[in-house]
Design a protein that fits this description.
The chain is mainly α and 312 residues long. It has one domain. The protein is 79% helix and 0% strand. It has 13 helices and no strands. The protein starts with a helix and ends with a helix.
């Protein structure tokens, strides 16, 4: 694959995890009002996983995997999709979808510090500034709303943070793990294993199973969009990016997703976007720029040169 084609694929993949994933908060919220959360996630990931395997077979991609690769796919599927997503969807029953997206915006902070703890990575000044801007932007978004906390919502918020920690840990794991050679096949195995575990969990928790034919039209459309775009397209793009760019850059999707969630809330649900929301969105995107930018910070570079000049 040539560099221009690879560069375009990376750009399209970032678009998928920024924009498409930003819409999944709304889609999950629509479906979870009618369908139990673990059943919702099981249907979504099993269907997407089977479709991915069928497409992989048609494309003649290598489906054979070693035992260690299969085990790693199961681990990644559990961390990402069973706990990281399944429990997240469960928490949406008690927490507003926009607020949940804001909590997810803490992911880059988790990733950067987990990489420091587990891999000894140096935390770059730009990354710290980017995370700081992201957290400040998130605070501006949250502070304008009067949150009515209940015992259920407090538990939901706590579980959301645990999901973000789990997802962040999985991102680091996948970036180094021995997985199937093709990222599309790897995504398929992760989804099928996660969907199976979620289906078992749904039965264990006694969730009522209902036919999708009995769901409302909105829930059916939202589920189809979740399967095709939220799962097959976006999660495949996510797995691809984890192998091509740094984990902390991939995690910046958590900063952009709340902005997309706000815009969709305004467009679909006729929610008001305040001036403070727009300012916060701008700060969040600036934070993403600092983490993603490859350019050196001129002010710090000049400071270092001056120090060296003084020493000489």
């Amino acid at each position: 694959m040539g560099k221009p084609k690879k560069g375009l694929l990376i750009i399209l993949s970032f678009f998928a995890i920024y924009v498409i994933w930003g819409s999944t908060y709304l889609m999950n919220k629509i479906v979870v009002t009618e369908v139990p959360p673990f059943l919702l996630a099981a249907i979504r990931f099993l269907t997407a996983g089977v479709l991915i395997m069928i497409i992989s077979k048609l494309l003649k991609l290598p489906l054979r995997v070693s035992r260690p690769q299969l085990i790693n796919c199961i681990i990644a599927g559990f961390l990402f999709l069973v706990y990281g997503n399944g429990v997240f969807v469960w928490a949406l029953k008690y927490v507003d979808s926009g607020f949940a997206a804001l909590i997810a915006a803490t992911q880059p902070l988790f990733v950067i510090f987990l990489m420091r703890i587990f891999h000894g990575n140096t935390i770059k000044t730009k990354s710290l500034i980017g995370v700081g801007l992201g957290m400040f932007g998130m605070y501006l978004l949250i502070s304008q709303d009067t949150l009515q906390l209940t015992p259920e919502s407090i538990i939901g918020i706590g579980m959301l943070f645990s999901c973000v920690l789990c997802w962040s840990s999985a991102s680091i794991f996948v970036s180094k793990a021995n997985l199937p050679s093709h990222f599309f096949v790897s995504t398929g195995y992760q989804m099928i294993s996660a969907g199976t575990i979620l289906a078992i969990g749904s039965l264990a928790f006694g969730e009522p199973w209902t036919s999708p034919l009995l769901w409302s039209h909105n829930a059916q459309i939202a589920m189809v969009l979740l399967i095709i775009f939220g799962s097959i397209v976006a999660f495949t793009a996510f797995n691809y990016l984890l192998k091509e760019v740094s984990t902390e850059k991939v995690s910046t999707s958590a900063y952009v997703n709340p902005v997309i969630a706000l815009l969709l809330g305004w467009y679909v649900l006729d929610e008001q976007i305040t001036l403070q929301s727009m300012i916060a969105a701008g700060i969040l995107l600036t934070g993403v720029y600092f983490i993603n930018s490859k350019k050196k910070m001129v002010i710090f570079s000049r400071f270092k040169r001056n120090l060296k000049a003084q020493e000489n």
